[in-house]
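Box 3.1 A note on notation
Throughout this textbook, protein chains are presented in two layers. The first layer is the amino acid sequence; the second is a token string describing backbone geometry. Keep the layers aligned when reading.
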Amino acid sequence: MSEPVRAADSPFAIEVEQGKTYYWCACGRSATQPFCDGSHKVTEFHPVKYEAVESGTVYFCGCKGSQHKPCVMAVIRNLNIRLSRPYSGCSISESMAGANPPGLLTINSY
């Protein structure tokens, strides 16, 4: 399988609406990132369906390499986010016990 085009080096913060369906671009070719515009038709990639179960900010992967496609993470009220610098990827991990305050997620660059 070929590699997708890296559309961005950081996630796309999108306000989603509960009950609405979104189609994330998996190929990286879409002009309407992070969503599909049909550009994948000349590739082996297909858009990934995302159904918003609640309204709020969702971080859609821009590098197309996230292990949690289509999202890097969903941000819920009062959740603290720490971005590692320099940011070059979309993998995330929960903080190690004692390393960060409870509830803090770290976005790791790779």
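Residues 15 and 57 are 4 Å apart (CA to CA). DSSP finds no helices and eight strands in the chain.
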